[in-house]
């Protein structure tokens, strides 16, 4: 779930400000972990979802609704058998997939970290 997505751009003539707000979901995804017997587990991950913004993104006359596929890799460092610190990289793409006459797209390289709790 993406409760808040922000796009910053130069002062927009449509709105008079430079921040465009949105939200979305990424309900489809998988994570393939390797080295199951190790405390450090490398992984590959992919997901797909959507974002909806208050104005067309990334340019005027495109679409408020955009798809968000991403693929990445990383490491899970298991501190205990049920808790892990994660670091990773993902390539994130955002575009309207041709549902509008213009489809410029926006690509991002994301480095991230996190903490996970696992249940049986």
Descriptive account of the structure:
This protein is mostly beta strands. The protein has one domain (24-117). The protein contains no helices and seven strands. Strands 1, 2, 3, 4, 5, 6 and 7 form a seven-stranded antiparallel β-sheet that branches. Strand 5 (70-80) and strand 6 form a beta hairpin.
Key phrases:
120 residues; elongated; mainly beta; 67% strand; 7-stranded antiparallel β-sheet
Structural class: mainly beta
Question: Main sheet?
Answer: 7 strands, antiparallel
Radius of gyration: 17 Å
Q: What number of structural domains do the residues give?
A: 1
Low-confidence stretches: none
Helix content: under 10%
Distance between the termini: 23 Å
Helix and strand arrangement:
Layout: E1 2-8, E2 19-33, E3 40-57, E4 63-67, E5 70-80, E6 83-94, E7 106-117
Antiparallel strand pairs: 1-2, 2-3, 3-4, 3-5, 5-6, 6-7
In short:
The protein is mainly beta and 120 residues long.
């Amino acid at each position: 779930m993406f409760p808040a997505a922000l796009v910053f751009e130069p002062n927009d003539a449509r709105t008079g400000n430079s921040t465009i707000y949105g939200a979305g979901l990424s309900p489809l995804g998988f994570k393939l972990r390797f080295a199951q017997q190790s405390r450090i587990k490398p992984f590959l991950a992919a997901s797909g979802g959507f974002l909806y913004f208050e104005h067309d993104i990334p340019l005027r006359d495109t679409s408020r609704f955009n798809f968000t596929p991403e693929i990445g890799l990383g490491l899970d460092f298991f501190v205990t058998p049920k808790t892990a610190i994660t670091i990773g990289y993902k390539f994130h793409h955002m575009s309207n997939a041709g549902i509008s006459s213009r489809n410029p797209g926006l690509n991002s390289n994301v480095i991230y970290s996190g903490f996970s709790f696992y249940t049986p």
